[in-house]
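Marked as duplicate of an earlier ticket. Keeping the data here for the record.
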Amino acid sequence: MPTYNRADVVFERGEGPYLFDTAGRRYLDFAAGVAVTAFGHAHPHLVEALTRQANKVWHTSNLFRVAGQEKLAERLVANTFADTVFFTNSGAEAWECGLKVCRKYHSATGNPQRWRVITFEQAFHGRTLTAISAAKQEKLVKGFGPLVDGFDQVAFGNLNEVRNAITDETAAICVEPVQGEGGIRVGDEDFLKGLRAVCDEYGILLFLDEIQTGMGRTGRLFAHEWAGIRPDVMAVAKGIGGGFPLGACLATEAAAVGMIAGTHGSTYGGNPLAMAVGDAVMDLVLAPGFLESVERIGERLRRGLDGLVETHPTVFAEVRGKGLLLGLKCIPANTDVVARLRDHGMLSVPAGDNVVRLLPPLIIGEEQVEEALAALGRVAREVGA
């Protein structure tokens, strides 16, 4: 179906932070498949893990124990707030599972009237009917009504509006620590800490969407760690599979109390291939010094972007984000900037609020930072001329 305005380029191979098209041209990949190929292309550790598992068994279903699930779940639990994990194939599925966990929790604990969820303007949680109903953006929902009921939307970053939106039917608050599609809008630490406090005060669950922000993207394993808080439920995907379709819903034992046999399922979720790659991803992201490197390189890239804003104020208005989840708010159309960058051999991703997202693989170094800044500078001179 023609649901994408695809760029007229076909990639046939990748190597680290670079992609090569069918004509042999090299591109610096600062899109990373929208924050998915977190360790670049054809990473030898991921390739080896996938091919080793591919020679054993691909799929058995969740009617049987899957050793890879048990291992990866144990590693996620050991390194996060969570006590339990459900594996999915995508971020939207992980988010839907998290929503079900939130509703089921209140049903199982004697408060079935609590089923509504507070969400935020400019949010993005996926493309399912329920996910677009939660986000309510016109570009997502137009023509797909009636929307699924159960979501009360407030301004991002506004704790007063959050409190005013809570009723006897509120089950949870769902938030992205950094809004990606919404324009790389960062929820500051006071806001996230305030959400945790509000949830504790009213006996509702804090449901984080870390699909784009997780797995080291901001310089911590998960972005909420910067605020020193612990969610009750969390949706994860994108970087967790390094390019292989994989998602996960993480929860505390208390929050997942209602998720017993028969309440949820997935045919492909947690298949042995995905688990092998996910386990290999954990090897890389938990390696000593890796997250510190992401933070350091992210700070270097941000300094360079700040310099571009200062040098080209008629093209770039502001730098946003954290770690290697960064955005440049543009004055000309962001889609034009993305297209021109591609012409100069650099890939990026548009976002809301006229922002260009810069989502490089987490393995980039100083050389790729300089290469990206040079390409951005050339585009700025073209556009600003």
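See parent ticket for discussion. The chain is about 35% helix and 20% strand.
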